[in-house]
Write a structure and sequence with these properties.
Residues 1-24 form the signal peptide. The chain contains four helices and 39 strands. The chain is mostly beta strands and 729 residues long.
Length: 729
C-alpha cells in the first residue's frame, strides 16, 4: 500500500487554501480600545469609584452572537481598562432588565460557561490569533481563568494569581479585576494586543461580544478579536519567579489483594521562573497530585482503551504544545502515561514563545523504579516546536522519547516485559483561514524502537468548513501495524480510516426555534488492503430552541468485523471469535433542557440491534438542581441492557454517579462524588474540601475510598491533608 496516495488529495486541497488565505487582514482589527497608564491606587471591590474609571475609554455597543448575529445586543454592556507598573485593571458593567433574576450554578472557580450569567475577557498578547489568556467572572463573583490555544479553545486547568470582585444591583452587575503582569506572558515593546469581551445573559438567552462574531463560532475566536492599544509598551517583567511548596500527610489502609498502603509524610513543590517575558521554566520536585479530582466513570462497551483527560497542574500550562499534535486517537504524547502508579522524582518544562511566531515546548520527566514489579527508572522527554505561517496557520515538529535507565542490568524476563526505548518523530501542518471558516491538518509520525517490530508509520489529514448555514469535514487516517507510541494514546493499529460529515442549518423567523437542520456523519475503517472492517453511518436531525434547550434524533447503520476475540458485554463472559461479522441498525435520541432552570437535565438513549443478532438498550440521564449560588447537586445515571443469544443471554448493568458541590464562598469549596459501576463491580467516593486562603494558595482535605465488590472484594481508603503556598516576586 502506497501511503502517499492517501495524502495527495488533501495536500492539493490545502495548497489552494495557502494562497487564498495567506495574507488576509484580521477581521475586526479596526475595533480598538485605548489604555493609559495610571498612578492611582486601586481597591478591587467591584464598585469602580476610582478617578481612573471616569477617564478611561469604554468598549460598549456590543453585538449579539446568539441567538442571531445580525443585530446589536439588547442588554447593554460596558468595559474599561487601565494599567500601572504592576497590574492590568478592568472594570465591566452589565445592565439588565429590572426583575430578571441572575442565573448562577455556584461560586466554584472555572464555572461552566453555558450555565451562568458571565463575563469573559480574551487576550492575544502576541497578536498571532492562535494563543492567549482568558479571565472572567460569573454574576456572583466566581472566577474563570485559562490559557487559549488553537485559535479559540480555552484550557481551564491552568491557574494563575489575580484578584476580582463582583457587585450586584437591581439593574446591573459590575466586575472589577486586577491581573498582575507577572501572571501572563507577552512580547516586550509591543503596544497592540488582540482583545475581546464576551457576555452571556441567560435571562434573555443572549450571548454578546464587543466585536461582531458569526454565530457558528465561539466568542473566544481569536480571529475576531479587536485591538487593545497601549499608550506605552507594557512594563518589562524583570525577574519573575514563583515558588510553590507543599507539605502533606496521608493516612490510609488497603484490604485489596496485592495492594498495600502506607501512611506517609511528603514535601515537594514547583518553581516557576520567567526566562523572558514570554518564555517560562517550570521545575517540579517530588510532585504530588492528591488534590486532583477523580475521573468520571463510564460504561465501556467498546473494543478499545478509553481516554481520560489530564488533570494534573504541572502538565497543563501550554499543554496544547504537547497534547494537540495528531488526532484524539493518534496522539504521540499523552502525559497521563507518566507517573500514574509510579513515583515521579522530578521534572522540568520550558514553554512559551521564542518570538511572536515561534513557540517552544520542552519537557523532561524522571520516574523512580518500582521494586514490586521490577519496573526500571524511566526518563520521558518531549520536544515541540510550532512556527506560525501565513495569517493563522502553523507548522509543528514533535519528538517524544521514553528511555528505561539501567536497562542492561535487568533480568532477562523483565527485558521482555519492559522496552529499552521508544521514540516518535512527527511533523504537521495546521491550516486556519483568516475568517476561521476553513481549518485543516496534515501530519506524519514515525516510531522507532530497539528492533523493527517498533518501527512504524502513522499519518492523517482533514479539511473542514463552517459557515452560518453549512458545515462539512473530510478526514483520512492511516496507522501501520508496527507503529508504537508508548507515551501516546493510540488505541488501534493497522487500519485506514475515511471519515466525512455534512450538515445544514435552517434559521427560521421564529420566537421559539433558533435553528434546525440535518447532519450526516460516516466513519469507515479498512485494513491495509482496503478490505472493509467496520463502519458507522449516522443521519440525524437537530433542533435548537430559543431558550437554549435542544432536541436531536439520529438513525445509524453499523458494521463490525472482529479483528480479535471480543466479549460484547465487557464483563468477563464468553468471547466472540475473531473474523466474525456483525451488522445492525438503531436510533439515538437526545434532549437537553434550558440551562437557566433550577432543575436541569440531559437525556440520551440508544435503541437498536447489537452483536450476534441481539439487542442493546441504553438510557442515560444527567440531572442537576441548584440552590444558587451555594449548592449544586448532580446525578449521572446510565443503564445498559444487552439481550443476546446464548451463552450471554441477558446482561444489564447500571452506572450511577451523584455529586454535591457546595461553595460556601468563592474561596471555600466542598465537593463530594459518589460513583457505582456495576459493570466493573466498583464503588468509589472522592470528597475534597478546598480553602483558597490566599491567591493561588490552598489548603486541601481529601478523602478517597474505593470498594471492590463481589467477586473481587476489598477496600482501599485514604485521607490526605495538603498545604500549598504561592511565593512570587
Amino acid at each position: 500500500m502506497n501511503n502517499r496516495a492517501f495524502l495527495s488529495p488533501v495536500f492539493m486541497a490545502l495548497a489552494m487554501f495557502f494562497c487564498v488565505f495567506s495574507h488576509a487582514q484580521k477581521k475586526n482589527a479596526d475595533y480598538k480600545i485605548h489604555l493609559f497608564k495610571t498612578n492611582e491606587t486601586f481597591t478591587i471591590d467591584g464598585v469602580g469609584d476610582e478617578d481612573t474609571w471616569q477617564k478611561a475609554e469604554a468598549a460598549n455597543d456590543f453585538f449579539m452572537v446568539l441567538p442571531m448575529d445580525d443585530r446589536k445586543a439588547t442588554q447593554p454592556s460596558e468595559v474599561k481598562m487601565a494599567y500601572d507598573d504592576k497590574q492590568l485593571y478592568l472594570l465591566a458593567t452589565f445592565y439588565k432588565t429590572p426583575g430578571n433574576t441572575y442565573v448562577v450554578e455556584s461560586l466554584r472557580r472555572d464555572f461552566s460557561f453555558g450555565g451562568n450569567d458571565n463575563f469573559l475577557l480574551f487576550m492575544d498578547p502576541f497578536n498571532n490569533q492562535t494563543t492567549g489568556f482568558s479571565f472572567g467572572a460569573n454574576a456572583y463573583g466566581a472566577q474563570w481563568d485559562g490559557t487559549m490555544f488553537n485559535g479559540g479553545r480555552v484550557d481551564l486547568n491552568w491557574d494563575s494569581k489575580w484578584v476580582s470582585e463582583v457587585q450586584n444591583y437591581e439593574d446591573k452587575w459590575v466586575v472589577e479585576m486586577a491581573i498582575p503582569f507577572k501572571s501572563i506572558r507577552y512580547e516586550k515593546d509591543v503596544t497592540e494586543w488582540g482583545v475581546n469581551f464576551s457576555r452571556l445573559d441567560l435571562s434573555t438567552n443572549e450571548k454578546s461580544s464587543w466585536t461582531p462574531i458569526p454565530r457558528q463560532f465561539p466568542t473566544a475566536s481569536l480571529a475576531y478579536t479587536g485591538t487593545m492599544v497601549w499608550d506605552n509598551p507594557p512594563p518589562k517583567q524583570g525577574l519573575n519567579y514563583s515558588i510553590i511548596p507543599y507539605v502533606l500527610g496521608t493516612v490510609g489502609n488497603s484490604s485489596i489483594e496485592d495492594i498495600t498502603y502506607d501512611d506517609e509524610f511528603k514535601v515537594g513543590g514547583d518553581i516557576k521562573l520567567g526566562l523572558t517575558s514570554s518564555l517560562n521554566l517550570d521545575l517540579t520536585i517530588n510532585p504530588d497530585f492528591s488534590q486532583v479530582e477523580a475521573d468520571r466513570q463510564v460504561a465501556n462497551l467498546t473494543r478499545f482503551e478509553l481516554f481520560f483527560p489530564e488533570r494534573r497542574q504541572f502538565f497543563l500550562e501550554n499543554a496544547d504544545l504537547f497534547a494537540s499534535f495528531g488526532y484524539d486517537a493518534i496522539r504521540p504524547f499523552f502525559s497521563r502515561r507518566i507517573g500514574l502508579g509510579v513515583p515521579i522524582i522530578a521534572g522540568a518544562r520550558v514553554s512559551g514563545n521564542l518570538n511572536r511566531n515561534l513557540r517552544l515546548g520542552l519537557m523532561d520527566m524522571q520516574t523512580d523504579n518500582v521494586d514490586e514489579t521490577g519496573l526500571p527508572s524511566q526518563n520521558f522527554a518531549v520536544l515541540s516546536l510550532q512556527q506560525k505561517v501565513f495569517s493563522r496557520s502553523n507548522i509543528g515538529l514533535m519528538f517524544v522519547n521514553k528511555e528505561s535507565l539501567d536497562y542492561n542490568a535487568l533480568a532477562d524476563s523483565l527485558k521482555t516485559e519492559y522496552t529499552q526505548f521508544n521514540r516518535n518523530l512527527g511533523l504537521e501542518y495546521n491550516l486556519a483561514s483568516a475568517d476561521n471558516k476553513y481549518n485543516g491538518k496534515v501530519f506524519m509520525l514515525k516510531s522507532f524502537g530497539p528492533d523493527s517490530s517498533y518501527n512504524g508509520f502513522a499519518q492523517g489529514a482533514h479539511l473542514a468548513y463552517s459557515s452560518r448555514k453549512w458545515n462539512w469535514r473530510v478526514q483520512q487516517e492511516y496507522i501501520s501495524e508496527n507503529f508504537t507510541s508508548e507515551v501516546g494514546f493510540v488505541p488501534r493499529n493497522n487500519y485506514i480510516k475515511l471519515q466525512g460529515s455534512i450538515g445544514h442549518l435552517f434559521l427560521p423567523a421564529s420566537e421559539k426555534v433558533v435553528s434546525h437542520g440535518p447532519q450526516y456523519t460516516g466513519f469507515y475503517y479498512f485494513d491495509p488492503s482496503m478490505n472493509s472492517t467496520d463502519y458507522v453511518s449516522i443521519l440525524g436531525y437537530a433542533v435548537n430552541f430559543m431558550d437554549r434547550s435542544s432536541l436531536g434524533v439520529d438513525v445509524f447503520n453499523e458494521y463490525v468485523q472482529l479483528l480479535a476475540p471480543f466479549d460484547p458485554t465487557n464483563t468477563g463472559k464468553e468471547e466472540l471469535e475473531a473474523g466474525t461479522r456483525h451488522h445492525w441498525n438503531g436510533v439515538y435520541l437526545q434532549y437537553s433542557s434550558r440551562p437557566k432552570s433550577l432543575f436541569t437535565y440531559n437525556l440520551t438513549s440508544r435503541l437498536g440491534r447489537y452483536f450476534s443478532g441481539g439487542y442493546r438498550t441504553n438510557i442515560n440521564a444527567q440531572l442537576g438542581y441548584r440552590f444558587q449560588p451555594y449548592v449544586s447537586l448532580g446525578a449521572t445515571l446510565s443503564y445498559n441492557n444487552l439481550d443476546l443469544p446464548q451463552p450471554w443471554y441477558t446482561t444489564d448493568f447500571w452506572l450511577v454517579g451523584t455529586e454535591a458541590d457546595i461553595t460556601f464562598t468563592n474561596k471555600l469549596f466542598w465537593n463530594t462524588l459518589f460513583q457505582y459501576n456495576e459493570q466493573s463491580n466498583n464503588f468509589g467516593i472522592n470528597s475534597r474540601l478546598q480553602w483558597r486562603y490566599a491567591p493561588a494558595s490552598d489548603l486541601f482535605l481529601v478523602f478517597n475510598n474505593n470498594e471492590q465488590l463481589s467477586p473481587l472484594e476489598g477496600n482501599l481508603w485514604s485521607l490526605t491533608l495538603k498545604f500549598t503556598y504561592w511565593f512570587n516576586k
